[in-house]
Amino acid sequence: MPDTIDKDIGRSMGEARSVLKRFFGYDAFRRGQEELIEAILSGRDALGVMPTGAGKSICYQVPALLMPGVTIVVSPLISLMKDQVDALNAAGIEATLINSTLSAKETNDRLRDIYYGHYKLVYVAPERLESERFRGMLRHIKVPLVAVDEAHCVSQWGHDFRPSYMGISRMLQDIEPRPVMAAFTATATDVVKDDIVDRLRLASPARITTGYARENLSLSVVKNADKRDYLVRYIRERAGQSGIIYAATRREVEGLAGFLTSLGLPAGMYHAGLPEEERARTQEAFIRDDLQLIVATNAFGMGIDKSNVRYVVHFNMPKNLEAYYQEAGRAGRDGEPGECVMLFSAQDVVTQKFFIERSEAEDERKRNDYRLLNDMVEYAHTSDCLQRAIVRYFGEDGGEPCGRCSSCNDERELRDVTDQAKLVFACVSAMKQRFGITLTAKVLRGASDAKVRQFGFDSLPWYGRLGSLSEKEIVQLIHGLVADGYLKLTDSQYPVVQLAAKVRGVMSEGEQVFQRIEPQQSGGRTSSRSRSGGVSAVPPADAELFERLREVRKSLATREGVPPFIIFGDATLREMCALRPTSEHEMRRVKGVGDAKLEKYGEAFAEAIRVYVEG
Questions:
Q1: Is 472 exposed, middle or buried (0-12, 13-18, 19+ CB in 10 A)?
Q2: Three-point CA angle 441, 444, 446, nearest 5°
Q3: What predicted TM-score, i.e. pTM, was given to this entire model?
Q4: How confident is the model over 369-425, as pLDDT tens digits?
Q5: Which ranges are annotated Low complexity under compositional bias (predicted)?
Q6: Structural domains of the chain, ranges and CATH numbers in brackets
Q7: How far is CA 89 from CA 139, 563, 567, in A?
Q8: What is the DSSP letter of 157?
């Protein structure tokens, strides 16, 4: 029997590769895809943790085409469902969605068509699982696979917990025999992974984590900058490229969008306080490339499948690293270079603490939120490779420095701050490890402060020992020591500085401490194209052809009423620029050109290339 099973799996994987080529236009699976597909086709539950742009959807779409019946895909946002269904239909795959945008008649018609087996994939919002009619239909159709996208939403310890996701496991009671369950997310700590397995009732799932590093992204943290001035220069250097600017509050979004537009940089805005129709128009314009720049709160983005976002700038620091990496990861989904910049200021920390305190979460959840916020602040101050810091946060070996981020490309002098660090450690110890960074800095600075005098810290031998530095410089020094693991902060609204075990090596074993000291200037450091490695993979000689192909794509997308990236992604257009296919046979060599798209769009692109070559 095992030999038979192995042969069946081998045959299935051969068929899976055939499906991949026929419908999606690729010759081979990416890292992690084959293992997940093999597990699903063998009847095993699966949990896939793969970075944004790694091709998670292929992992359930390919099995869905090979398994009898209809696959149910639980997806959190209407926009994501529509993009996915449009892309599948464009590839010649029968798929549909059921959500609140449909009329009663449209819903009835689609439910009837699902019942009669007209679709291979059906996308639904988690709230739909509470519908008795929908669940009743599930009892009468064959459902071999349930795929859960953005699965971190099921975990109360994740950054975007959604109670409606709790209904997914209850849905299993209505499906006989029990379907294979496959859950996917881009970011999840070990705690969140375990929560996903438990809450979705995955049965001994195959767990595949392909790694969190995004080799096409360059990460940057910019401190001490005039944020608006920096942003204007940054956007103007990237004219014509799609970008997302995230801000922490609705007021900030509105002010920033108005400011950019007044300078001739048209920017749409998106936040939960705007009318639904306005949000939909803005999002649609951005997805269709009619609008290149959007300023938004974190209400925008999850499930946005736009592949050619070239940069994401966080005007304010987000609440935690999981949220940050999800949002930053919307750059470069097509695998082409993308930039992710965070503009940091101390006020950002105050804002995020306000949000935590204002929430109605229980004390345990608030403590967890403060811990996550502290991790985010450490990221902002670390001198380590930013990509490596993120990978380690998610529990993996950081590996070698990426060579692309602002830390790896930091040209400031690396200074020995061992003597200063020892003074900080001694002062924290003398203050009984019971006070925060700011008061510690005041003591070391020798400030004439009421609170310093109240606790008698002005009589400590460490009082004023760093008087040659400004309070801001001392605060940055301490934050750097926290980020590098010498100090730690408690998980509370007013974090207390404490000594970590790593201090012993400095105080007793002669280890040295090095930091890059932040220059005190208002302009801050820029993240120019030359520093980041650039964002365009089109050779200069092909830039004109690339623009012509974009025009063809835009025309076809407008005609069919879909976003341009549904026709072909930028990576496919760039490969056309390199290969210059002028026939159907040659077009088949281009990655991303499947049978259906070749038939519908191939000649239009081949003709544009012929005209360019002949001209």
A1: middle
A2: 105
A3: 0.76
A4: 999 999 999 999 888 899 999 999 988 887 889 999 999 998 777 789 999 999 999
A5: 522-536
A6: 2-209 (3.40.50.300), 217-393 (3.40.50.300), 414-516 (1.10.10.10), 540-614 (1.10.150.80)
A7: 26, 13, 11
A8: T
